[in-house]
TrEMBL record:
NCBIfam families: pola, PRK05755.1
GO molecular function terms noted in the UniProt entry: 3'-5' exonuclease activity; 5'-3' exonuclease activity; DNA binding; DNA-directed DNA polymerase activity
Name used for this protein in its record: DNA polymerase I
Organism: Rhizobium setariae
Keyword Cell inner membrane: no
Gene3D superfamilies given in the database record: 3.30.70.370, 5' to 3' exonuclease, C-terminal subdomain (1.10.150.20), 5'-nuclease (3.40.50.1010), Ribonuclease H-like superfamily/Ribonuclease H (3.30.420.10), Taq DNA Polymerase, Chain T, domain 4 (1.20.1060.10)
Length: 994
DNA sequence: ACGTACACCTA
DNA sequence: GTAGGTGTACGTC
């Protein structure tokens, strides 16, 4: 771009709203799809493209772009959570038009630009300044005063509705200050539509006058005491903090990380047929004719375009779908986490401010503790409607369900609680109000069929209907603590929570690792200094425990409303901290989008064949009984084989076998390793114990326990995934744990044959091959490892060959086995002690191996030292996507504690990066399958493996899609220097699919 | 009834 | 040597 060029920047998002309200409502004839704003938009674009010279702009563009807001979560929201919080939901008729306007932009062959975390205005500011710097001119198609700060000699604005140019004189005329002082003016006046605070009582006139007198905002604030008018002086001095924040909010960023260069915005010739096809689809007859004529297109010959519409009349919109395209991510994601948060002064300032906000709130909460007496029980429709209205005012509501079960797949609703911020009471939003809405409490003295409903509760259907409107509104942010639970419960009650945040996950991202837990009680004590009412005080414990629906409503109110209140307060403290620490991206990319993905997996469950398990259980019982008899024979007495204490006494006390070792509590160790060694020396008894343990383990943990988890209605097994329980970012699975189903032995694998596809379907298993070693090769930059993975060579054989000088061809299996153990050892933060144990060799020999390994692969040693150093310096290490894992004990004076933390800090970036990669895959994969029209459902995750269920004739087609997503899951955030490989198979059961 | 130790299943 | 969860035995309250 050069002198004489002219860039047009259309504020697409601003235009949508303005056109919608200014132009007459218009619907598409064929299906009543509202298209008024789209029509106005198309007409405007066309006019600017072919006829701009005849408007007030007076010049023809050489470059052109349309800019959109990406989503409601921007850095401003992080600085000041109430920013734009009072925006109500977009009108129903406008919603389908958001997507259509983007489609229209593409049909006009114009770049459609958006960037996560930034508003359209920031992107516009960036391009305008770039154009100016290049010696060109820019015209911003908008009349929004927020953009007027950008106006200069070379940057203009244009109000397309009024055909009016806005340059420096127009700004001065309208606002009384030149464009460069618009920021100061807005900081003083605030903006009620965006909820920017400003100073109460100061409007544009006063602000302009003050700025005229003092010159600029900084001087004004310094010399505020000189202001003569008492009230004005006081309010300005009192509002200095808010002015600071306001200024940050209204200052547009001119250095957003846009991925398009100015030259990418050069105007392309119109594609007549493409545009005509779109306009025909919209049924804009006049414009279609005009465009067809101008581009020499025969409109009659053109088929209408296939335009996706997110609209089904009465139902709410799915805004995520319109926006969350892979393309959007590509644009928004820089190539490394370092680039994600460049350490500029501006970024530092944002972080400092966010920290200040978090601290200010924490202090406020410390002096304004939780007050149970303010909580309200909502017992009628109109009261609930009032609460919903209050929630809509700020667009932010904390929500919590109370049920009769910890299992979200079984839970029935007892009630729910809401908490909202009272902005009138405190502009910082930290005065909270909370209520409890009982809907399913029982009276307690019912008949045998269960108590009747307690009195004075809103009928559950009515309450849910009102609640649905709030929770499904995409413009209302629903805050939960472990919201996956509430998401599932509400889903089972017909409500799909739309836009949400989760305080548990925020805490996990901020403080993962260490011995930190992220449950609400712990968070409340940590951040609010408040100990919540213990659950057991409400329901009782032990034998006298009751389910929540039987709790007295008044008691329930205190507990439940407090939960919502705490959740809202936690959010207010934690949200700005995410920004301050630069962890918003981790939270928004790796945590939050996984919530509903996992919830759906849990909801689907997997089919388990009772008969197979029951038959296996019988077989195991018989075999175990036989071995049991033999054991008693050999031992000469009957005893409890399952008691390590009794067993140790028999083996090492009574029989005096050699090789005894002690556990840390001084008991004889009877571990498998000890028994194996005894067996190898020819004794029959230890082997039988090992065999007996294997059989009874399989029986009790799997064949006997699993059927108890089959859901009475779905007839499937629904595990529960914990998102915030591991230090590294892995998931964990419980009730039942489906991440430890046996696979290593033939006996154990039989359990897997009981995990089956529904009739007419297949299970598809897809697992990453050697993902952790690949991640290691990437992170530590080991040339030989990278080469081996690039060439698809057996990685353990390669390692053995390098270390022991044995050719890969015809390598003895034992040599390879040792190399494999070393490779795993490296991932685990190797020690000579551990490797010696694993390989049953001397510690000195293990030490030699390690030394040799480090000589051959010096980068590994460097990586390990760097990891430890980083943990010592920062207190945490990071995955390749920026997830932090904290090691507060890395400097412990206890050498074994220290060594343990060092090994863990070596392992965490490897294990954690692999965990992040599969998380990314899981977030993308459902959309990828749906887009491909394949009906495959993701059921399970086992750390490096995903299991799907698909109709027989679609399973094979699903495999390449799944593989594609998984193998490219690190992209585009990280470009790995090692390829990822995925093995996948379809079969009737999990054993054969794996 | 609850907590801890031990053993053993997974990646 | 890393990261998890569960079942049994056995101690304590």
């Amino acid at each position: 771009m050069k002198n004489g060029d002219h860039l047009f920047l259309v504020d697409g998002s601003g235009f949508i709203f303005r056109a919608f309200h200014a132009l007459p409502a218009l619907t598409r004839k064929s299906d009543k799809l509202p298209v008024g704003a789209v029509s106005g938009f198309c007409n405007m674009l066309w006019k600017l493209l072919v006829d701009a010279r005849n408007t007030e702009v007076g010049v023809t563009p050489t470059h052109f772009a349309v800019i959109f807001d990406y989503s409601s979560t921007t850095f401003r929201k992080a600085i000041y959570p109430e920013y734009k919080a009072n925006r109500s939901a977009p009108p129903e008729d406008l919603i389908p038009q958001f997507g259509l306007i983007r489609e229209a932009t593409r049909a006009f062959n114009l770049p459609c630009i958006e960037l996560e975390g930034y508003e359209a205005d920031d992107i516009i500011a960036t391009f305008a300044r770039q154009a100016e710097a290049a010696g060109a001119e820019a015209t911003i198609i908008s009349s929004d005063k927020d953009l007027m700060q950008l106006v200069t000699e070379r940057v203009h604005m244009y109000d397309a509705m009024k055909d009016k140019q806005i340059s420096i004189p127009e700004v001065i005329e309208k606002w009384g200050v030149p464009p460069e002082k618009m920021i100061d003016l807005q900081a003083l006046t605030g903006d009620s539509t965006d909820n920017v605070p400003g100073i109460p009582g100061i409007g544009p006139k006063t602000a302009a006058q003050l700025l005229e007198t003092f010159g600029d905002l900084e001087t004004l604030m310094e010399r505020a005491h000189e202001i003569k008018q008492d009230k004005r002086r006081e309010s300005i001095i009192a509002g200095r903090e808010l002015v600071k924040i306001s200024k940050q909010l209204v200052t547009l960023k001119t250095d957003t990380p846009v991925t398009e260069a100015l030259d990418d915005l050069a105007l392309e010739p119109q594609n007549g047929p493409k545009l005509v096809a779109f306009l025909k689809t919209m049924e804009f007859t006049t414009l279609t004719r005009r465009v067809a004529e101008a581009t020499g297109t025969d409109a009659a010959e053109i088929e209408p375009a296939d335009v996706p519409v997110v609209w089904d009349g009465a139902r709410g919109p799915d805004l995520d779908k319109t926006d969350a395209t892979p393309k959007a991510e590509k644009k928004a994601t820089p190539s490394s986490p370092a680039a994600a948060s460049p350490k500029t002064d501006a970024a530092d300032e944002v972080a400092d401010n966010a920290t200040a906000m978090s601290q200010a709130r924490a202090e406020f909460f410390a002096t304004h503790p939780i007050d149970h007496s303010t909580y309200e029980t909502v017992r009628d429709r109109s009261a609930l409607e009032r609460w919903v209205a209050m929630a809509r005012e700020t667009g932010i509501v904390a929500f919590d369900t109370e049920t009769n079960s910890l299992d979200p797949m079984q839970a029935e609703l007892a009630g729910f609680s809401l908490a909202v911020a009272d902005n009138a009471a405190s502009p910082r939003g930290d005065v909270t109000r909370a209520c409890y809405v009982p809907v399913g409490h029982k009276s307690g003295h019912g008949d045998l069929l269960g108590g009747g409903l307690a009195e004075n509760q809103i009928p559950v259907r009515e309450a849910l209907e009102i609640l649905k409107g709030l929770l499904e509104d995409p413009s209302v942010l629903v805050i939960g603590q472990n919201i996956k639970y509430d998401w599932l419960v509400m889903k089972r009650h017909g409500i799909a929570i739309s836009t949400f945040d989760d305080t548990m996950l925020m805490s996990y991202v901020l403080d993962g690792g260490g011995n930190t837990t992220h449950g609400m009680d712990a968070l409340s004590e940590r951040w609010l200094g408040h100990k919540p009412v213990p659950y057991k005080d409400v329901t009782g414990s032990g034998k006298g425990a009751v389910t929540f629906d039987l709790v007295d409503i008044d008691k329930a109110k205190t507990y439940a409303a407090e939960d919502a209140d705490i959740t809202l307060r936690l959010w207010q403290v934690l949200k700005p901290r995410l920004v301050a620490k630069g962890l918003t991206r981790v939270y928004e990319r790796l945590e939050r989008p996984l919530v509903d993905v996992l919830a759906r997996m849990e909801e689907r469950g997997i089919s388990v064949d009772r008969q197979i398990l029951s038959r296996l259980s019988g077989e195991l019982a018989q075999s175990a009984a036989r071995i049991e008899d033999e054991i008693y024979q050999l031992a000469g007495e009957r005893f409890n084989i399952g008691s390590p204490k009794q067993l140790g006494d028999i083996l090492f006390g009574k029989m005096g076998l050699p090789g005894a070792s002690k556990t840390k509590t001084g008991q004889w160790s009877t571990s498998a390793q000890v028994l194996e060694e005894l067996a190898d020396s020819g004794l029959p008894l230890p082997r039988k114990i090992v065999d007996w343990r294997q059989l009874t383990k399989l029986k009790s943990t799997y064949t006997d326990a699993l059927p108890g988890y089959i859901h009475p209605e779905t007839r499937r097994v629904h595990t529960s995934y914990a998102m915030a329980s591991t230090s590294t970012g892995r998931l964990s699975s419980s009730e039942p744990n489906l991440q430890n189903i046996p696979v290593r032995t033939a006996e154990g694998r039989k359990i897997r044959t009981a995990f089956i596809a529904e009739p007419g379907n297949l299970l598809v298993s897809a697992d990453y091959s050697q993902i952790e070693l690949r991640v290691l090769a990437h992170i530590a930059e080991i040339p030989q490892l990278k080469q081996a993975f690039a060439d698809g060579i057996d990685i353990h054989a390669m390692t053995a060959s390098e270390m022991f000088g044995v050719p890969v061809e015809g390598m003895p299996s034992d040599v390879r086995r040792r190399a494999k153990a070393i490779n795993f050892g490296i991932i685990y933060g190797i020690s000579a002690f551990g490797l010696a144990n694993q390989l049953s060799i001397e510690r000195s020999e293990a030490g030699e191996y390690i030394k040799k390994y480090f000589e051959r692969f010096p980068g590994i040693k460097d990586y390990m030292e760097a990891s430890k150093a980083k943990a010592r310096e920062n207190g945490y290490v990071e995955t390749i996507f920026g997830r932090r894992i904290h090691y507060p004990e890395i400097k412990s004076s206890n050498p074994s504690v220290r060594a343990f933390n060092e090994r863990a800090s070596i392992n965490a970036p490897i294990q954690g990066s692999a965990a992040d990669i599969i998380r990314r895959a899981m977030v993308q994969i459902e959309d990828a399958l749906e887009t491909s029209g394949i009906n495959a459902r993701m059921l399970l995750q086992v750390h490096d493996e995903l299991i799907f269920e698909a109709p027989e004739n679609e399973a094979e087609k699903a495999i390449p899609i799944i593989r594609e997503v998984m193998e490219n899951a690190a992209m585009p955030a990280i470009s790995m220097s090692v390829p990822l490989a995925v093995d996948a198979r379809a079969a009737k059961n999990w054993d054969e699919a794996h």
